[in-house]
Amino acid sequence: MQADDFGFGTQIRKSPFFDATVRWGAQGFSVYNHMYIPRDFGDPEQNFWNLVNEAILCDVAVERQVEITGPDAAKFTQMLTCRDLSKMAVGQCKYILITNADGGILNDPILLRLAENHFWISLADSDILLWAQGVAVNSGLDVTIGEPDVSPLQLQGPKSGEIMKALFGDDIMDLRYYWLREVELNGIPLIVSRTGWSSELGYELYLRDGSKGDLLWETIMAAGLEFGLKPGHTSSIRRIEGGMLSYHADADAGTNPFELGFDRLVNLDMEADFIGKAALRRIKDAGVSRQQIGLIIDGEPLAGPNTTFWEINFGGDSIGKVTSAVYSPRLEQNIALAMVSAEHANIGAEVEVVTKSGPIRATICERPFYDPKKQIAAA
User: Fold this and answer.
1) pLDDT > 90? residue 102
2) Nearest 10 degrees: CA dihedral of 77, 79, 83, 86?
3) What's the CA gap between 110 and 138, in Å, rounded?
4) What whole-number distance in Å separates Cα of residue 333 and Cα of residue 23?
5) Which residues of 163-185 are buried (b: 16+ CB within 10 A; e: fewer)?
6) Closest CA to 51 of 229, 303, 243, 240
7) pLDDT tens across 240-293, in order?
8) Strand 55-59 with 229-232, pairing
């Protein structure tokens, strides 16, 4: 199949790695942040095993960067998020929530601090570039906000460290979890971070020159050959096992951090003001009416992830919805993330999930489902 065989028109952008992914077997794409993202390299279960046993390379250029610079960059960036950034060092990354005036989540990106007044927001699927530029207009702060020529790849899995060592030398092993480093690889300018959307040991390589996308992809694949590296896509199985959010599925602008159990990402006591602070204080004081839970769903293995929200019933009443569901071949269970009314968020309770095949029994459980303390990724 040729790269030109894929397409909805010129309004959907192609990443610098697009042609390479097609050469390496990408068979299907979806759209994320107005760009194509590879979602099919064959069997998704095999992609999962490649990830957890060896390593996969994923084109995640759809994680667009919002670049914030200028004398007031740090102050402005803090305005956007409820997480306290006062102790964030240059070279550090943080998982943050961007909230609106009602305390709703607009995005759950990774924030990278490249310099004292230089930040990247590495986005989930929503238009935060426009939000940030709009906020800046009336902020009175001296900032410049734009989208740089930056496109990340994810190298994820237990062999990813060995591959990084082959590419960059032993020094790269000193890179700590959620920290970044500016590097060059055969003349290719990069930022490398120990982050990723997999809950496995992993790295993200942020290409800073789109013309070198093909060269970077082929260089990494060549270095990874002896370690079993495969081309791949972000694994729904692994991210649900790890309890990782998919924006628009598990959270949206109508979801607040407390419903997700993200109290640790909200600091209402910091001196700095941020958008949504007053609303989040009211929500915390009143208590939430919904909570995210985990579910083990009975029955035969699900054929694939759910493509609609499944209703959850208890005692004949609707109490919530399944937001992300999948069969985990490792756990040999159907697992799901769901949002239910707080009064019914009881571990061990049995509920009914209404799938397209009909109602199925399910049990409320803790999440994440695997490696809850993130020991694998942080090792």
Assistant:
1) yes
2) 70
3) 25
4) 34
5) bbebbbeeebeebeebbbbebeb
6) 229
7) 999 999 999 999 999 999 999 999 999 999 999 999 999 999 999 999 999 999
8) parallel
